[in-house]
Design brief:
With about 475 residues, the protein is α/β, with parallel strands linked by helices. The protein has 4 domains: about 25-285, 3-Layer(aba) Sandwich (Rossmann fold); about 295-340, no CATH class; about 345-395, no CATH class; about 410-485, Sandwich (Immunoglobulin-like), CATH 2.60.40. It is built from 10 helices and 25 strands. β9 and β10 form a beta hairpin.
């Protein structure tokens, strides 16, 4: 019996060994393209997941990097969320994979896309740097909500990304790396070199070739749409300077979510568009021709006064201006401005001094106090036309009707309806009388031959007037009178 049991046990072991030997090993599928994705909240995805977002092709897979959604290192259909189950939602990777499949399938029907996604909201790039245990030190200083998400990745997110990538390499080929991070490192000029450290380490530890595995780095929410960290895009733009096979994915015109008040996240529609931009850039690096939407051109004539602001700059001369924007659907919109700049007019008149009051011919108003008169109208081109004049009003001087001189008399003074001017010395010859306003505007000028000339002045404006009398021999007498109302 003992021998029989031995023989049967040996037989069982033999057949089990044969069965295991005949079980085929997992073959690496060269049509299974793997993409690594890492970063902070925008790579987690903060967009609301709709029913349509859950309709995913079987060819689009994600490898679980946490224990949720079926267990660690298990492949599943890439139904969002892809990163983890502690607040992740719809992100750019969701529509990155979909567009890749749709674009490559006509050329290769066997194509499949696999995603390895590790992302932690609010984290610094330092969390992915394991040198000297920087990641551990950084994690130990964070709040409990972030620590919880870090612990979901085994406490060291970079190592989870690395080990998940190695698992994914058993099934497919790593074709690229996607990054969206930077808000927490806003403005840090060392950020590009820190990104290079993480990228280089992944390439080395996964036995990849940098020239075959591009890095795609997405911009943060732009300042133009209200992004709080939009200035960091100038830092992101420097990444290709330190990583040769890297590309920046534009976030231009992608709408910002205001739901949480942080001004750093995109809307759900913006995440969908952003993912497609990532995909289009990856397709270009892979040699595929992208059928872009035709440009839309908006051309308009603009007239401005003195200057015109366009594209963040001020222009003071007539010219043609152009600006190209990327719309949310990735269509280029070209705006052409045919600009005409007209100048405003500023005129300063000579100062005026008047007694008691002054009626300004420019605006027809009467002023009784010293001041700088200002009139604002429009030029023929519709720009401001400003006229100024310094007015000085002096106290009224009591005028003696006999003060003109022994030969000339002006009366009554002040006068209301009729003004008389007597010039006895000029009775024998031809003379001339001229009367001016205080501003020097001629009111009347007439020849005289008699000793007395009278003038109807009831319709004249109130004020001080100057009288000039010239006789036939060229002698001149001057005087003043005041016109008043009854």
């Amino acid at each position: 019996m003992k021998i029989r049991h031995y023989v049967l046990g040996a037989a069982a072991m033999f057949f089990t060994a044969v069965a295991n030997a005949q079980e085929p090993a997992v073959a690496v599928d060269s049509n299974f393209y793997i993409f690594l994705a890492f970063g902070q909240s925008n790579m987690e995805g903060q967009g609301t997941i709709s029913a349509a977002d859950k309709n995913v092709s079987d060819k689009f897979q994600v490898l679980n990097t946490t224990e949720c959604n079926g267990g660690l290192f298990k492949w599943r259909k890439a139904v969002p969320p892809l990163a983890h189950c502690q607040g992740a939602a719809l992100g750019p990777v969701d529509y990155f994979g979909r567009l890749l499949i749709d674009s490559i399938a006509p050329h290769n029907p066997n194509i499949r896309i696999g995603i390895v996604d590790v992302a932690i909201a609010g984290c610094s790039i330092e969390l992915f740097d394991t040198a000297g245990n920087k990641d551990v030190t950084y994690a130990s200083k964070q709040q409990s909500w972030m620590t919880s998400r870090i612990n979901a990745y085994g406490g060291r997110p970079y190592l989870r990304l690395l080990n998940a990538a190695r698992e994914a390499q058993k099934y497919g080929v790593i074709k690229g790396i996607l990054l969206h991070q930077g808000e927490t490192n806003n403005g840090d000029q060392k950020w590009p070199s820190n990104v290079k450290t993480v990228y280089d380490r992944l390439i080395s530890q996964l036995n990849l070739k940098a020239e075959e595995v591009p890095l795609l780095v997405g911009e943060v929410v732009t300042t133009a749409v209200g992004g709080a960290c939009g200035a960091h895009n100038a830092v992101i733009a420097k990444v290709p300077n330190v990583i040769p096979n890297s590309y920046v994915v534009s976030a231009a015109n992608l709408a910002m979510s205001t739901a949480d008040g942080q001004n750093v996240h995109f809307t759900a529609n913006a995440y969908r568009a952003f993912g497609q931009r990532y995909a289009k850039q990856m397709l270009r690096t892979m040699g595929y021709v992208i059928n872009e939407l035709p440009d839309t051109v908006i051309e308009k004539d603009v007239k401005a006064c003195d200057k015109y602001n366009f594209g963040g700059k001020s222009y003071t001369k007539s010219q043609q201006l152009k600006k190209s924007d990327v719309l949310e659907n990735d269509q280029n919109q070209i705006t052409i401005i045919n600009l005409t700049v007209n100048k405003s007019s500023k005129t300063t008149l000579d100062p005026v001094t008047a007694e008691t009051e002054y009626t300004w011919p420019v605006d027809g108003k009467t002023y009784t106090e010293s001041q700088t008169l200002k009139y604002k109208g429009k030029t023929v081109n519709g720009c401001d036309s400003t006229i100024t004049c310094k007015l000085t009003i002096t106290a009224a001087t009591e005028i003696d009707e006999n003060a003109v001189g022994e030969h000339v008399a002006i009366y009554p003074n002040p006068a209301t309806d009729v003004l008389n001017i007597s010039v006895p010395a000029c009775a024998a010859g031809l003379g001339r009388i001229a009367i001016y306003t205080a501003a020097g505007v001629e009111v009347v000028s007439t020849d005289f031959v008699s000793e007395l000339e009278s003038f109807e002045i009831s319709n004249w404006s109130n004020g001080v007037y100057m009288v000039w009398v010239t006789d036939a021999e060229g002698n001149v007498w001057t005087g003043k009178f005041v016109k008043t109302s009854k």
